[in-house]
Write a structure and sequence with these properties.
- Helices cover about 40% and strands about 10% of the residues.
- The protein is of the alpha/beta class.
- The chain has 2 domains: about 5-255, P-loop containing nucleotide triphosphate hydrolases (Rossmann fold, 3-Layer(aba) Sandwich); about 260-470.
- It starts with 6 loop residues before the first helix and ends in a 27-residue tail after the last strand.
Length: about 500
Amino acid sequence: MSLPRTLGDLRHSIFSEERLRERRVKDEVRENLIARLRGKGDTPVFPGIVGYDDTVVPQIINAILSRHNFILLGLRGQAKSRILRALTSLLDPHLPYLAGCEIHDNPYSPICRRCHEEVARLGDAAPVAYLTPDQRYVEKLATPDVTIADLIGDIDPIKAARGGHELSSELTIHYGLLPRANRGIFAINELPDLAGKIQVGLFNIMQEGDVQIKGYPIRLPLDVALVFSANPEDYTARGKIITPLKDRIGSEIRTHYPATVDEGIAITAQEAWTRRNGHPLHLPKYVQEVIERVAFAAREDKKVDKRSGVSQRLPISAIENVISNAERRAIRNDEKLVVPRISDVYAALPAITGKLELEYEGEMKGADHVGRELIRTAIAKTYDEYFTGANMQQIVQWFDLGGEIQLSDSLPAGEALENLKKIQGLVEKLGPLRVSQKESPELQVSAAEFVLEGLHAHKRIGRSEERVFKAGEKRPEPVREKSFEPEERPYRQRRQFN
């Protein structure tokens, strides 16, 4: 479909004057959302957003249907920015504006001096251009050094000198980000980091729908949908959202971390770089669960700061490191298949420790120690999912009788499997993991190591820092106190003195 290129052609197209004059951005987003909801679930409202179908998404839908400006409030790594950017999918594919206009004026009702003069001079011959949905989204990361000029605008002496205009002319205005987002969506990330006096500059646009440029007796009636994101920690740590601005935000929507391990795995699988251009990869489900449960365990651990949160980026980065460590082993040992092991999770500690804000107790123990404890907890919970009620006494007894085996993360799969077969009953216990003795050595080693790590996590066998599995430490039996047997006269009667 060819799009009209002049104002005259635009009048006789689907972009009628009545439609463009009265249909504001929030109306446009609302109408497109209603059309998507009528699609009976064929297209998700926000593609790529996992775990919010019953919580966050309905609240966002209500805010859009109410034509509200809204804020997403949640800890780091909860897809707040992704949701804001996904709002562009609710915009029309093409929006006409007067060509060359910095604030994308409506061809039928321009608000800037330059476009007024252009339409008066050219009439229906005034050129028209079009905006795509991505071009109608403007995002600003709030920082303490942001000024009113950055957001709203200011006088531009260079523009005045080059154009031969007086400084009092509207043609010398340098428009800020907010006017440049006219007829689109303007997002501010980490709103509390914006200085209080700068937040005041948003009052007019949120309530009256206009901004005032410094030094000019003009008002620009902008058409903008405003959305924000913030971290609750920021209210006390670095700054706060001033009360009058909070009062003008229509809806406050709380985000959250994945509610289940399966949701976390789905998010991690979507975001992590797992499709490598090297060896074929087989990523066992139990390894994915262990990595995801590390984040879940960290969010519950008292040694980790809950106010800061544990980002979903932790399992994403960790699984990439896990695959890389397995890839390194396969390359060095000339193996054809890359299969991560639990030892690779420990090797991914650098991707875990940097994402944990520790409390005092955690700082005293050290990030590495806390990270290893979290991995061990995650292994124990995952092991229970597969082997609850399984009889592992034969394997434990093999170690109790003096058996030892070393499994480094660089050991070739063939050599490791020969060592593992010495452990009586181990290879036969891999059924719950859907690994049989007909599988490749890489798969069998990964599954067998998971069993051993699970037994170690439950303290049924021991393991040294050099990854030597051995018998668990024998705990001393508690000292039993002898029961008191009463005698005829347990106490000597006190002698009486006269």
